[in-house]
Each structure stands twice: as structure tokens, then as C-alpha cells.
Design goal:
The protein has 291 residues and is of the alpha/beta class. The protein folds into 2 domains: 231 residues, P-loop containing nucleotide triphosphate hydrolases (Rossmann fold, 3-Layer(aba) Sandwich); 49 residues. The protein contains 11 helices and 10 strands. A 6-stranded mixed sheet has the order 6-7-8-3-9-10. The chain starts with 5 loop residues before the first strand and ends with a helix.
Length: 291
């Protein structure tokens, strides 16, 4: 069985900012992404995840190490703008659409300067807008579209030149829960049906769990890299890393019950009370998210 081609490789990748107090945004990152993968990079602010995305997208240059995208060493590329236009598609948290252009014209922007005629450009942009579910919004300006619709146009624009990889930086960050879920649905559909390699940077565990591989970064390094097997296994992984999980793993059942005020209950009552407590916690969280 043939191994899938490699789309992205980084070797000992380093990025240092600052002349005085240096900040090691990336500290020796080794990474391989295969064609057709759908993966997420997570991590706290300052962990290096957006810096890694910028290196892969040739938006910034590394201090050391190597980045190879679609077989090309980025350090040897002379026309970086042309390389980005034909190899990498970008979706940002804020859609970055040009306000004076229609949806169709925005999708066509990356096609300019490529070997494609005006008729083919129009046909492709219309096809991509149909693909993202906006066949009736082609002539609308961004101001005439909802936030979710604008992000769909941004996804279509990212696909304009059939890129080797799409880099999505917090693509749901400015959207409500429903619109954000629809964007993830769309990216998943594109990955499964078009075979497009997609890398998402996100803070949202719900988004990450929709992908098939999660990288977690800390202090400029990849601290964890695992395949997503199921939502329940991801819940167990999060629980194991929590303080509660640590207490349970160490057999501190009585301490757990004491800390949540259930130490005086019998086992059956404690379980039912714990269930009610979890329901209350979820209700409080939903109320907070809606505010």
C-alpha cells in the first residue's frame, strides 16, 4: 500500500522574536502532515500555534530550521507571493473580504496573476460559491452577508487555486455557535469530498474534536500529537489531565467527594447528586456562553 504524499514538513523549526529579551515562539518543532489530513493545532496564547501556521503559510521566515510545503523548501523560493497564491489557501478569524467587491469577485482575487482566463475564472468562482452553499449570494457585497456567509466566501476564496493545504486560523472565533458549527461542517465536507488537506488553529475543544488529529503546543513545542478516536475518548483524555482526573487516578475518592460536598452521602445518593451537579454546571456554562 502506497503511503500518502507529505504536504508539510518542518525540521527543527525555530522562531525567535526580539532583540533584547528574546521570545522563543517556536523551539525546535518537527512536524509531518500528510495529504488529505484534517487536523487541529491547540494551545494557550503564546504557545506558538499561530506562529507555526505563519511559517507553514510563508507569511513569516523562521530563525532556524526548515519548512517544506508541497515538496518545496520555503527558504529557496524566490517569488513567495506566487507560491502562496497557488499552494496555500488561508481562512482567518475575520474573513478579510474586500468590501467593495462582490462575493464572486472576492473569490476571484487569488486567481489574478495565475494562468487562467476570465471565463474560467468566473466559472470556477461560481462553482466554489455553490460548493460552500451560496449560489444565490454571488453578487452580494460583504456588508449584505451574515458573518457565517462571509466566512463561507472566505472558504471559497481559499479554494480558488486548488491549494495543497488550507490554513484556517480561528475560523469560528468571531461566529456564534450555530454559524461556527456550520463552518466546521463545511471544512469537514471539503476535506472528505475534495481530499483537501486542512489545518485549523483553534482555542475551541469542540472544533478540535471534529478533526481527526490534534496537536497541542506549549512553550513553542509540540507537547502532544494524537489521533482523534471518538468524542468520549477525548473526554477521557481531558479528564485524565485535570485535577479531578489526577485525584481519581490516585485513588482519592473520599477527597473528591469531600471537595464537592458529597462525603456524607451513601454511594447511590452521591452519584445522583453528582449528576445533578453536572447538569447545573452545564446550564451555568450555557448561560455564560450565551451572554
Amino acid at each position: 500500500m502506497n503511503k500518502r504524499p507529505i504536504v508539510v514538513e518542518t525540521h527543527a523549526l525555530i522562531k525567535i522574536y526580539g532583540d533584547g529579551a528574546e521570545i522563543h515562539a517556536l523551539d525546535g518543532v518537527d512536524l509531518v502532515i500528510l495529504r488529505g489530513e484534517f487536523l487541529t493545532v491547540m494551545g494557550p496564547s503564546g504557545s506558538g500555534k499561530s506562529t507555526l501556521l505563519n511559517m507553514i503559510g510563508a507569511l513569516d521566515k523562521p530563525t532556524g530550521g526548515q519548512v517544506i510545503v508541497n515538496g518545496e523548501d520555503l527558504a529557496t523560493i524566490r517569488d513567495v507571493d506566487r507560491f502562496r497564491a497557488r499552494t496555500v489557501g488561508f481562512v482567518f478569524q475575520l474573513h478579510n473580504l474586500l468590501p467593495a467587491l462582490t462575493a464572486r469577485e472576492n473569490v476571484e482575487v487569488p486567481m489574478h496573476g495565475q494562468s487562467i482566463g476570465e471565463r474560467e475564472m468566473r466559472e470556477r468562482s461560481e462553482h466554489l460559491l455553490e460548493l460552500v452553499g451560496l449560489p444565490d449570494r454571488m453578487r452580494h457585497l460583504p456588508s449584505q452577508l451574515s458573518g457565517g456567509q462571509r466566512q463561507r466566501v472566505a472558504v471559497a476564496r481559499a479554494l480558488a487555486n486548488d491549494p495543497a493545504i488550507i490554513l484556517a486560523d480561528e475560523p469560528t472565533g468571531s461566529l456564534d455557535t450555530q454559524a461556527g458549527g456550520e463552518i466546521v461542517d463545511l471544512l469537514e465536507h471539503i476535506n472528505r469530498n475534495q481530499g483537501t488537506t486542512i489545518l485549523i488553529v483553534t482555542h475551541d475543544p469542540k472544533v478540535a474534536r471534529r478533526t481527526r488529529r490534534i496537536l497541542t503546543m506549549r512553550d513553542g513545542k509540540i507537547a502532544d500529537d494524537h489521533r482523534v478516536e471518538s468524542p468520549v475518548r477525548e473526554d477521557l483524555r481531558d479528564l485524565a489531565r485535570s485535577r479531578l482526573g489526577s485525584m481519581l487516578l490516585n485513588g482519592a475518592k473520599d477527597q473528591v467527594l469531600a471537595e464537592i460536598g458529597l462525603d456524607q452521602h451513601d454511594e447511590e445518593t452521591a452519584i445522583e447528586t453528582l449528576r445533578l451537579l453536572l447538569n447545573r454546571t452545564l446550564t451555568d456554562q450555557d448561560t455564560h456562553d450565551a451572554q
